[in-house]
Amino acid sequence: MAEYRLGLQLHGHTDDVRGICVCGDAGIATSSRDRTVKFWTRNPEKESEYVLSKTLAGHSSFVGPLAWIPPSDRFPEGGIVSGGMDTFVFLWDLQKGEVAETMKGHSSQVTGLAVDTNGDIISSSMDCTVRRWRNGNAIEVWEAHKVAVQTVLKLPTGELFTGSSDSTIKLWKGRTCLQTFSGHADTVRFLASMPGLGILSASHDSTVKLWALSGQPLLDMIGHSSLVYSVDAHSSGLIASGSEDRSLKIWKDGVCVQSIEHPGCIWDAKFLGNGDIVTACSDGTTRIWTADSNRFCSDEEIAAYTDLISQYTLSRKTVGGLKLMDLPGVEALQVPGNSDGQTLIVREGDNGVAYSWNSAELKWDKIGEVVDGPGEAAQGQVHDGVRYDFVFNVDIGDGEPIRKLPYNRSDDPYTVADKWLLKENLPLTYRQQVVEFILQNSGQNNFVPDPSFRDPYTGANAYVPGQPSSSSNGNTPEPIFKHIPKSGMLSFETAQFDGILKKVAEFNSKLSSDSSCTPTHVTCTEKYIV
What we know:
This protein is mostly beta strands and 530 residues long. Helices cover 10% and strands 43% of the residues. The protein has a four-stranded antiparallel sheet, with no helix packed on it. A four-stranded antiparallel sheet has the order 2-3-4-5, with no helix packed on it. Strands 6-7-8-9 form a four-stranded antiparallel sheet, with no helix packed on it.
């Protein structure tokens, strides 16, 4: 097999490129965390190049899955379906560059899209449902899994599949589950067709699997070192997968035949008809890789890309548990040591090298290169000087910086969520969403809350904002409130005022008349509770 090399880089998005859609011979569509969809068409002067044709802006949050609608009388230049974190599904008319249909109904992020042979649009969501849309209306809705549905796949032969955070794949006929495929150890993130053989699945367990349509596992592809976000197949028999480990891997007969490093995680990877591979990277760039020497980019571009990868690798490399870039350079060896035998680790090129101070000869003696121990690289991540099992990047909204969420498997996710929301000054109504994010991304899909815990407000074993308080007739004792009445104003920079007022009024009503505030005293003005 000829080796793939960089062919073209598409710059245009200002944030992570999240999804790719190959639009027949018309072009390529890409989605991004910058809330846009971009459509790229072939350069008429040079067929191997793509140029930006249209930017489709309408989503209010980052855009993920995409699907292609071939040209028709209604859409002479075709259409693109997009799903966003804003819970909407949009159908775009490419000729006009406008939204032709807005599909509202999901209550959480849209994670997957497919177009049926009759033109129906099928969407999956973190809200655990799958919806079938026709002319902008949901004609079928069903709970496909008990936890988030991450992907949906519709085959031309009629089979419909879903993959979920429950680690399973389900085969559907209408709203009836015909079969459940079990085999992955973590979230099934993406599904793709492998014509003539079955379907492919990419998982957070770092593997790619090939399944027969009967549910029989046929092949395991093991080689990624982190979450696998995408997978695709070509008629040549090649398979491409993209991962959090920053590598595009190309597989043949279950064997990885090439691995291509990127300067960020790869959210999506798709084959073009000619065998080229398009990747969506978290550095905001879409890249096309080719095995045809006629489509290779210039030697200067390849050298610049190689240098980019080298700099990125150096910035993340560790030696002895320390970041290589944090080590002093060789100039530190010009400063004498303080005592005989004192050790010093310096950066020499791409390596960390240890030296020992020789007080008799007043020089530094080279000891040797420093490397990480057998398990050091996998001992978690450091945040604010503390090592954790995980340090997640959390996107809380457009225009907001990425927040760091540290977590250990031994921690209670509810407690971690509470402390983190308070630290970041975020509403507690995000609590359950944060907990689900932690559990999904840490692989703790079967977590069960501690049954001995009882929230004093709801009587439940986990606090859910908006739930009514427990009654005195239940098993939970009536809570004793020591801080009401409270006179004066309380200031809140970020708060759910309606919820606070409702709860304060509820607490107030339980107090004796000589202790309670009058209803007119419990009011809200701007960011103050009075």
